[in-house]
Amino acid sequence: MSPSDTEPVIIVENLTARYGDVTILKDVSFEVYRGERFMILGGSGCGKSTLLKHMIGLIKPYAGRVIINGIDICRADEETLQAVRKQIGVLFQADALFGSMSLSQNVALPLTEYTDLPAELVREIVRMKLGLVDLSGYENHMPAELSGGMRKRAGLARAMALDPMFLFFDEPWAGLDPVTAAELDILIRSINEGIGATMVFVTQELASILSLGQRVIMLHKEAKGIIARGTPGELRETSTDPRVLNFFNRHAM
Amino acid sequence: MEEMETTGYRLSVEGKTGEEATIRLAGRLSLDDLEPLMADLQAIPGRLKPRRLSVDLAGVDYLDSAGALVLIELQNRARALSIPVDLLNVSEKDHGILTLIDPEVLQRPPLRPEVVQSPILETLGELARKQFRDFQEIMSFVGELVTALIYCLAHPRLVRWADVTFYMKRAGADGLPIVALISLLLGLIMAFMSSLQLKQFGANIYVANLVTIAMVRELGPIMTAIIVAGRSGSAFAAEIGTMIVNDEVNALVTMGFDPTRFLAVPKVLATMVVVPILTVYADLFAILGGLIVGVTGLDLTAFTYIQQTKSSISIFDFVTSLIKAVVFAVLISGIGCQRGFQVRGGAEGVGMSTTSAVVSAIFLIVVFDSAFAIMLYYVRH
Fold this sequence. Notes:
The complex is a heterodimer.
Chain A: E1 8-19, E2 22-33, E3 37-41, H1 48-55, E4 63-68, E5 71-72, H2 78-86, E6 88-91, H3 103-114, H4 119-132, H5 148-159, E7 166-170, H6 178-195, E8 198-202, H7 206-212, E9 215-220, E10 225-230, H8 232-238, H9 242-249
Parallel strand pairs in A: 3-8, 3-9, 6-7, 7-8
Antiparallel strand pairs in A: 1-2, 1-4, 4-5, 9-10
Chain B: E1 9-14, E2 20-29, H1 34-48, E3 52-63, H2 65-80, E4 85-88, H3 92-100, H4 120-154, H5 161-171, H6 176-198, H7 206-245, H8 248-254, H9 259-297, H10 302-312, H11 315-342, H12 347-380
């Protein structure tokens, strides 16, 4: 939680990502510390989402490794990987709520699958999680009936169902109006500070980067890797790289 | 000092019934032990009925939101019994989680009650209404489709011919192997089964008539239509349905295209061309199947079998069978597209519309075939 708490919980080492013959990322290394809000920035097509998919074990890297909580998820067997996945919550860009289930069924799904809790307790946890994201009362609504911001929050409630140590966000602010986005910022901050989960964001939303980001890395398409690291403030104020400055000042290249 | 455990929680209670009591919690209060922890703690206020309850969290080294939920439920339970509760030695981190949870939301009823199975009469009524609405939608789509087709007839340049040839390949050429195989087998079976009976009367030669008439008049068009409905009708529904889900159809509308003309007309035109051709192929392959049985099993020569086949059908039979095929083609592609446009929601909606496209198409094929059978009987006589 405190800035001095610099125990690395996610370590990415010399990661190289390829789709077929196309190299997306080359020799990317960085660490994420416990409890921090870590952001991966970069323009469209720079490999942000690819990097995220590697970090949550959806894609195996071409070379290098990803270590989460001391476990190398690129070489772990299926059983270990499953255990690591329970520690991970992911909020996908398109919220990925199951359209055929009500909100409470969406949130209850991981709970009923991974625990033996009685239905009454599951219901209670679901109610609490929906309360955490300001959606109390919406248990029996279907995802299609909700606005974009509400669906994002419902997705977050589902990602948090098992009290994961790590929360990954893929473009959580995409498609939200500034007010809703700012509300989501506040919610994410209070959850991060309250629950202490380590959060990794992939984003290009400048306002939220500046208000929420504690440490960031910036990827670039041509560099196929990291071109800058530091706090958002540092990068904006002290960077001399025109690619970084243009990003933070919203200039065309 | 006790040694720290890495998993599980420890709980001890001090104090007598009716007096002040202290619950000491230690270890991990997490989702893993939620059920026993909840049961243990919930029992305490009722059992001891203390004047005041203190919960000492000094030994807690991990608390997640499920653990916090337990503490809040304990407070709620105690409050119901009018027992004041104090949480002692709450670490800063645990305090963060506890303040995050609003005790009030745990009691708040849902804005909408859970959907429960309605009584049988209501379900029946709902079903009937849905059927009626469905019928209305189909009728209005038929109207749109006919308008679009007539418009395209008047303005052939506006038809997307590239799409038409694409779907002709998809629904026609790609479907030929399976249509050929099934018809051949059907011909073999029909010839074989009928020969067992006809042999007894020395009427082997009439196997040719039986296979040909059955195939050309009835089974050829209907079998082909059913295969095309399964292969292509479902594909049309899934394709258009997914486009609806991805807002692609809305994009077409905003660009000023008529979705029916843009998406449905090429598919309908393509199937109208290929289904009759496939039907002819189906007839031929079934006759070939009959021929194989006739030559190998019934001592007929290929020449006599073909002569008999020729004499058993008229041009009238052949033409009406092609007309039937065209009608079936319109039914299959029309219902496929209509079910696609009907999709609402997401992945589940696409699945339902695909199923419904095939089921409705097959149903309509059989209904129209019966109508044809009666009509043609009176035309012939």
